[in-house]
Amino acid sequence: MSRFACRAALLLALSLGISAPAYAAQDCAGRLGTSRVMEVDPVGLQVGTKQFPQTLDLADREVVLTFDDGPHPGTTPAVLKALARECVRATFFLIGRHAAAHPDLVRREIAAGHTVGHHSMTHPMTLADIPYEKAVADIEKGLKADDEAAYGAGGTRPRVPFFRFPGFGSSPALLAYLKRRGIGVFGADLWASDWNPMTPEAQLTLVMERLDHAGRGIILFHDTRAQTVKMLPDFLAALKQKGYRVVHIVPPPPQTAVAP
Ligand SMILES: [Zn+2]
């Protein structure tokens, strides 16, 4: 392919929206950016002070951004665009049936460098309120659907062993199950209450008040909410202005070597 053809192909890819790798190569100077990557061991992990006694080891003014319930074609692309504009990496906790319906969006999240975790197949409210076997089946179906959408195949262990309970509705038996499966459980330290209808301005004020009070933490949003999409650019600008730093959480790399 000639240099011109290469360039034409690149421009075509960009115009078609296949631009995720371009974000990674972008110059992040002057933007909020992602300040560090934190490798999180999922085995026995239970973090987020809204649900558990402990949380991630974050320094003052460090935040982890998480988005639940997607992907959704009406809102997730705008969330990805806002994050890309500020060179910020986040974690998406997917609903399996949404991932199965929109695998293209799941792949865009991964291509842009975000972490893709799991949030059950059908989002029962809650998994703790349905029979244990049904709850386990819904969790497992979700893991498989997400990985099939993301990578074309789901193995016995999810590629990213991170899980968040819908409505934070866990039970000791389900927590023990995930621990045995080596899957880490993420709650949150604060949220924007974006399931309640409010203006983007009111939501921004609310979440910044909560964040300024907490000083750090795992923040929960929903990439399915239009008000969150509208708020996000201003929220990222507020983080930058107030000196907050974004931490990107990732699982350890898959173990390829077998111990002798
Ligand atoms: Zn949810």
Automatic annotation (TrEMBL):
Q: Where is the NodB homology domain?
A: 61-247
Query: Its GO CC terms?
Result: membrane
Q: Which InterPro entries does UniProt cross-reference here?
A: Glyco_hydro/deAcase_b/a-brl, NODB_dom, Polysacc_deacetylase_ArnD
Q: Output the GO biological process annotations, alphabetical, semicolon-separated.
A: carbohydrate metabolic process
Is Signal found in the keyword set? Answer: yes
* Molecular function as annotated in GO: hydrolase activity, acting on carbon-nitrogen (but not peptide) bonds; metal ion binding
Q: Which Gene3D superfamilies match?
A: Glycoside hydrolase/deacetylase
A Pfam family of the record is Polysacc_deac_1
Keywords of this protein's UniProt record, alphabetized?
Answer: Hydrolase, Metal-binding, Signal
Q: State the source organism's domain of life.
A: Bacteria
The entry's function note states: Is involved in generating a small heat-stable compound (Nod), an acylated oligomer of N-acetylglucosamine, that stimulates mitosis in various plant protoplasts.
Q: Which PANTHER family match?
A: CHITIN DEACETYLASE 1-RELATED (PTHR10587:SF133), GLYCOSYL TRANSFERASE-RELATED (PTHR10587)
Its recorded name reads Chitooligosaccharide deacetylase
The species this protein was found in: Ancylobacter dichloromethanicus
